[in-house]
Amino acid sequence: MANNKSWQSRMTAEQDSLAVNFVESISYDKRLFQYDIDGSIAHARMLSEQGLITNKEFSAIKKGLEEIGSEMKAGKFSFDVSCEDIHMVIEAALIARIGDAGKKLHTGRSRNDQVALDMRMWARDEADIITELLKDLQAALVELAHKQGQVVMPSFTHLQRAQPIISGHYLLAYVEMFQRDRERLADARKRINVSPIGSGAVAGSTLPLDRKRTAELLEFPVVSRNSIDSISDRDFCIELVFCCSTAAMHLSRLAEDWIIFMTEEFGFIRLSDAFCTSSSMMPQKRNPDMLELIRGKTGRVYGSLVSLLTMMKSQPLAYNRDMQEDKERMFDAVDTLRASLAIMAAMVRTVTFREDRISDGLDRGFLDATALAEYFVSCGMPFRQSHQVVGRLVAQCEKQGIKLAQLPLEAFTSECVSADASVYKCLDPANVTRSYKSSGAGGVKQLKDQLKFWDKQLSKSL
Question: Looking at residue 7, what is its pLDDT?
């Protein structure tokens, strides 16, 4: 065991087996193997260009690393837990293959800047993958809005019926949320995409390392400015998981809506049986388990964010082993969000709005009350007065068990002398959705404009 550890010569006793198992991270950081290999090849190339190793040694290192990577990818590599982490596993395997040349790979490098590099490369790729998954979910929602976007339905505030909208307007509200998630990730990616390699353990190196060259080889546009911050920074981890948490929150809101909409009490949508389960006892049940799991897994993503923030909150500069705890939390948050986004997009493509059920209840809740108040405003009445007038008319309708559109014209003219038969054009939910004039409103015209915008937006990169 002692021979596998680069730092063992300082110790006077071999590491206890309990300590070996407690400190290891290879069980989960082995998924970083390709990033570690790519980073090591770039580092070795830079060392050869700087004359710190020979071209022959670089060729041997590169060939050895590529062989190790191929074996790992094929599942033919045996990971030794006593080597602690993916960095030392790969280095030990390289030395075993090519001898002394492998011992030169770590020149001018520490595991501190090595792990920071691997994590940034991984986070950069994951940000791109999540961005594409968000875009696919947006596309699924836009497709549904094209197909069934003109179903008149109630909107809600306080979970109470508010104003009539069309279903496409409702769907595009989530497209907006997921667009912000994409933009947030794009912004975070700028801070992720900074090369820390060459910062060493904490203070850099006395060797003539060309950090810009290594960054260029790994497609980083810039290098970090301060070696202490380079190896102790986990803001990029926290920021990525924050982005995941916000996207998970948006998914959870959509899941909650649809769990409610699927109930018999609402009956607004139907989801394919492919994404439902039944009950082990009640044979009639169609349970939205996938939606409920998305909602539940949001808490899991939040937990990763709180874990990372707590891990970092009291750490002195610079690197501390606490930071080893970043990986499992990051991996889990990203994996959970990726799975949730993929299944939500698949579900969206099976959803049907149940227009008959929705229309059956459109007369409930006086959805056209606000439009009536605005009609009186167009007749010259102050809004505060028209608000009170319509409130009285609604109370009158409730007593009589009728709709606003069933009131006689005299009921309106007695409150507003300028009112006439045109008042009925603003009554009835479908009429209201055709009457919206403000941009971004819940009407037919606005939906057509918004769909044109999103069709164009989703056809290009962010």
Answer: 53
